[in-house]
Amino acid sequence: MKIVHTIKDLQAELTALRAQGETVGLVPTMGALHAGHASLVKRSVSENGVTVVSVFVNPTQFNDKNDLVKYPRTLDADCKLLEACGATYAFAPSVEEMYPEPDTRQFSYAPLDTVMEGAFRPGHFNGVCQIVSKLFEAVKPHRAYFGEKDFQQLAIIREMVRQMQFDLEIVGCPIVREEDGLALSSRNARLSAEERENALKISQTLFKSRTFAATHTVSETLKFVEDAIAAVPGLRLEYFEIVDGNTLQKVDNWNQTSYVVGCITVFCGDVRLIDNIKYKES
Ligand code: PAF
Predict the structure, then answer these.
(1) 168 alpha carbon to ligand 1 midpoint, in Å?
(2) How far apart are CA 158 and CA 145, in angstroms?
(3) If DSSP codes are grouped into helix, strand and coil, which group holds residue 107?
């Protein structure tokens, strides 16, 4: 695996490989890689001749500067994991390389980006679209891989690709969980042992809510989850919404659509964790 730091060097490599008929898969990441990222990389490796993994902590998507400062940066360990997964290139640019001048572009995909994370993290998805569109332009991948844990991000990126007519396929990959159910996240590394115990209640509640939902209404299921999280000292619910998986708008009964997802964000201490569960999938 080669580590490349500039767009120019990466493009020189990729142009030659594309000319030989290789397909290119891109896995955008912010580093601090774990088994969830590894599953995306392995999927790309199995579906493409060349896999580029970008490792870049994108400053424009952090609405909380403290979060940006605290974000783990572990490039050496990341590269070891990527090499083991069979990635072809780790693309680790500097901030100046990706943003030689301030990015003033505005991306707006209302109502997808105004609800849930969009409401609580103003500007976050604009920053995500800025960096992901730059990566698509730099790498020109045939396929790009994103995890379903960031369910809203995936829906917005699909919409950006549709509206901007990027010629590539977006591949959504299932959430990877610890054996006990906790969704893998780079932020889990910041949890103390006690917080880790509390955090486990998030996925446990979501799983239980799926059984509960089979015999209860949407509003009863919302309350079931809200009450279960409120009962755990050390957890603070930011939101739990049951939405149409395509439009991300709230549903008020199970028969309103064929794709229904519950999306949750919970503070565990000062660590903000997200997760989601599918109640119905078309
Ligand atoms: O999901 C992430 O890690 C980031 O939002 C992404 C897609 C790599 C853009 O910085």
Answers:
(1) 17
(2) 11
(3) coil
Instruction: State the distance from the centre of ligand 1 to the C-alpha of 236, rounded, in angstroms.
Output: 24
Angle of the 193-213 helix axis to the 218-230 helix axis, nearest 10: 160
Which residue in 5, 34, 37, 124 is the catalytic one?
A: 37
Tokens of 135: 């990566």
Q: List per-residue pLDDT tens for the chain, 282 residues long.
A: 999 999 999 999 999 999 999 999 999 999 999 999 999 999 999 999 999 999 999 999 998 898 899 888 999 999 999 999 999 999 999 999 999 999 999 999 999 999 999 999 999 999 999 999 999 999 999 999 999 999 999 999 999 999 999 999 999 999 999 999 999 999 998 999 999 999 999 999 999 999 999 999 999 999 999 999 999 999 999 999 999 999 999 999 999 999 999 999 999 999 999 999 999 997
> Which residues line ligand 1 at a C-beta cut-off of 6 Å?
28-30, 58, 61, 128, 131-132, 150, 153
To the query of whether residue 124 is one of the catalytic residues in this protein, the response is no
Among 278, 268, 265, 277, smallest CA distance to 124 is for: 265
Which of 80-102 are b and which e, b meaning 16 or more Cβ less than 10 Å from the residue's Cβ? ebbeebebbbbbbbeeebbbeee
